[in-house]
Amino acid sequence: MDMELRHLRAVLAIAEAGSLTAAAARLGVTQPSVSESLRRAERIAGGPLFQRGPAGALPTRLGEVVLAHAGAVLNAMERFSAAAERHPTRLPAEIRVACSPGMLVASLSVLPADELGAPLSIRTLADIAPQLELLADHRVEAALVVEHPHSRADLPARVQRRVVAVEPLFVAVGEGHPLAGLPEVPITALAGETWCIAESDDDGLHELLVGALGQTSVDIRVGLNYTTALQLAELGEAVLVALAGSRPRAGLANIHLAGTPLRCTTSLLWHADGPLSPEAIDLLWTHLTQAQHRIVEQTPLYRDWLAEHPEWTTTPEQR
Fold first, then answer.
1. ∠ at Cα 265 (223, 108), nearest 5°?
2. Do 16 and 109 belong together in one domain?
3. Is residue 316 situated within a structural domain?
4. CA dist., res. 242 & res. 244, Å (int)
């Protein structure tokens, strides 16, 4: 008969607590259960492990030897269990994905559960750093991150990236804006405008916009209610940064920017030690790139822009 971990835990608890009764309370079991574990441990070890007296249960010489090894074995098992939890291999009941707001979130959310073997659970976060923290701690299995040049987000160790799309950003202004209707304008023509952008502390858009406008001070309103931002743009009081694949909206005109000074990158991220297999990552990436080309890039304005810029490849070649 081999000594089991529960026998070692009982022996260690008796030594630390000083009695079988206290050891049972510490372990959350009955005293007869502790007594039985001690009897089995003594039978396997070949002799008494404790001497009971007025001072409580004191280890014998044999007991001290067993206790020294019990502590080492239990500590090693705790480290092993913690490492196994940090490196899951079994697919969870649902695959959790953290997402930046973007055009591909809806396409990801409708991926059939049987494709990956589990349904997807989508969580949208404005900032990138919390998504990376969730990924590093194995609290999500993947992330779909949208960021811009100058993004301050650094990938944690063992987190891997696969680019889904690199895209231009357009701007939206009210239909009565002097620049509405022009096929393309330099971004500096909008330097004196008030800009509305989504709320994010680390996606790099604020810094990109300031650099592209060539100003040290730009009137940028961050995190306004989406409806309020739209109304301001419709009234000619603000300029919106628009995703290239966004649908036309009554009252607004989308404008191309000369030289493509604003752009964003959408990436699929996952933990190398997570439960998603290379095949699952390939499937997710393929699903996302197909949605990018077949849905996002088929809006009229974006399709026309890509036709006019054949040198632009939204999905980089994968190595």
1. 80
2. no
3. no
4. 6
For residue 298, pLDDT over 90 is answered with: yes
Q: What is the C-alpha separation between 191 and 213, in angstroms, rounded?
A: 6
Assess if residue 237 is contained within a domain: yes
- Both tokens of 137, joined, read 């701690």
Amino acid in the structure at residue 302: Y
Residue 303: domain span: 95-308
As a whole number, mean pLDDT of residues 60-83 equals 84
Structural tokens at position 75: 């500590």
What's the first-to-final CA gap in the chain, in angstroms?
Answer: 54
Find the radius of gyration of the CA atoms of the chain: 30
**Angle between helices 20-27 and 31-45 in degrees, nearest 10:** 110
**In sequence order, what are the beta bridge partners of 146?**
266
The last residue of a domain, from among 66, 86, 106? 86
Residue 180 has pLDDT above 70, yes or no: yes
**Predicted local distance difference test score (pLDDT) of residue 82:** 63
3-state secondary structure of 309: coil
Task: Return the structure tokens found at 151.
Answer: 């993004």
Model pLDDT, residue 60: 93
Instruction: Assess whether 107 and 40 both reside in one domain.
Output: no
* Rounded-to-integer distance, Cα 87 and Cα 261, Å: 41
Using the 8-state DSSP alphabet, how is residue 275 labeled? S
**Angstrom distances, CA of residue 218 to CA of 59, 188, 215:** 74, 12, 6
The H-or-E segment that residue 228 falls in is helix 226-234
Strand-pair partners of 265: 147, 166
The residue behind tokens 């007991």 is 63
Q: Which amino acid is at 53?
A: G
- Cα–Cα distance between 231 and 218 in angstroms, integer? 20
Other CB atoms within 10 Å distance of the CB of residue 109: 14
Last residue of a domain, one of 86, 105, 127: 86
